[in-house]
């Protein structure tokens, strides 16, 4: 097939190296022709011709054909390569142009979306900044108002404490002529509590102390519900006309110690409001220890305990401090005897 296409191969009389180059060039040219679709001529059958001779072609003719074939091969290859390069260049140009247009469209789309989002963020930021400024102003106003309220509260608190102390003082002053008697059985006073209490004081404190008539303005039970049978009776509240009579009754009750009325123990106390009474009652355990130890003491209004130890007076308004002092400085007679 190569000999039919290339006649130079019919009578190839060259060196082996030269023959290899020619054959390679013919093969390359044959492949190019096959790619282009050129018709391949048929090879004549000369093997059966006995008169056929194979004379050796001249060397210069063989070299000229090889040069022409090489030049033709080179030009064809260059043309093919140039055509492929041009096609590739055109394809690349089209692809680059298409990619550029797509990238430009995508960039514009992204720029538009980013512009919208940035604008929305700016609006949100401006709104947030406005809200923050409003909150800061409101917070400043609230802080100023709170400071003013705290000052007003402190002032009102001081005024309240003053008024509270004054009310307590006025209430207790209104009760300064009152006595509270605990332990009298229910209904023992009958229908006339004032007369009953006058007879009660005379009997309990002793008729020998009735150097003057005790004037009672009024007497009544406390306002608590009436107790059932067997329960603790309500206390009697007695208002005396003169403060000196009240002090005299309290002095005589302290001098007599334990008091009894018809076999039942009774107690006589100053009548004070519940708050002061609670404060004074908190000193009861300490007063019990002082009585057992034989230590003199006094409980002043409203709730101030004064203890006399070794001719020295010690005052306490806190029952815990008084308890601590008694435990440390006062010796129990029972303990010392043991």
UniProtKB/TrEMBL annotation:
Residues 40-63 are annotated as: Disordered. InterPro entries: L1_RRM_dom (IPR043636), Transposase_22 (IPR004244). Residues 82-109, 146-173 form a coiled coil. Residues 176-268 form the L1 transposable element RRM domain. Residues 50-63 have a biased composition (Basic and acidic residues). Keywords: Coiled coil. It comes from the Eukaryota. PANTHER family: L1 TRANSPOSABLE ELEMENT-RELATED (PTHR11505). Belongs to the transposase 22 family. This is L1 transposable element RRM domain-containing protein. It comes from Maylandia zebra. The lineage of its organism: Eukaryota, Metazoa, Chordata, Craniata, Vertebrata.
């Amino acid at each position: 097939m190569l000999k039919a296409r290339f006649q130079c191969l019919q009578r190839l009389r060259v060196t082996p190296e030269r023959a290899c180059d020619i054959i390679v060039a013919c093969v390359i040219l044959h492949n190019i022709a096959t790619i282009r679709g050129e018709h391949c001529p048929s090879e004549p059958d000369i093997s059966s011709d006995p008169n056929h001779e194979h004379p050796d072609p001249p060397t210069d003719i063989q070299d000229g054909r090889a040069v022409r074939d090489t030049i033709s091969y080179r030009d064809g290859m260059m043309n093919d390569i140039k055509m492929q390069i041009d096609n590739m260049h055109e394809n690349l140009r089209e692809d680059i142009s298409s990619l550029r247009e797509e990238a430009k469209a995508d960039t514009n789309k992204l720029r538009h979306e980013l512009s919208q989002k940035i604008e929305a963020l700016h609006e949100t930021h401006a709104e947030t900044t406005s809200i923050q400024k409003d909150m800061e102003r409101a917070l400043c106003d609230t802080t100023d108002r709170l400071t003013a309220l705290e000052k007003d509260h402190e002032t009102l608190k001081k005024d309240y404490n003053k008024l509270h102390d004054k009310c307590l003082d006025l209430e207790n002053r209104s009760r300064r002529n009152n006595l509270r008697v605990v332990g009298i059985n229910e209904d023992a006073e009958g229908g006339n509590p004032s007369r009953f209490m006058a007879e009660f004081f005379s009997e309990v404190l002793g008729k020998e102390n009735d150097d003057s008539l005790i004037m009672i303005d009024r007497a009544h039970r406390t306002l608590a519900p009436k107790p059932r049978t067997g329960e603790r009776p309500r206390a009697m509240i007695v208002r005396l006309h003169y403060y000196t009579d009240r002090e005299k009754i309290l002095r005589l009750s302290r001098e007599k110690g334990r008091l009894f009325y018809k076999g039942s123990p009774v107690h006589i106390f100053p009548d004070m409001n519940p708050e002061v009474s609670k404060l004074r009652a908190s000193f009861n355990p300490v007063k019990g220890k002082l009585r057992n130890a034989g230590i003199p003491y006094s409980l002043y209004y409203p709730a101030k305990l004064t203890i006399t130890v070794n001719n020295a007076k010690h005052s306490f308004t806190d029952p815990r401090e008084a308890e601590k002092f008694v435990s440390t400085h006062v010796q129990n007679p029972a303990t010392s005897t043991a």
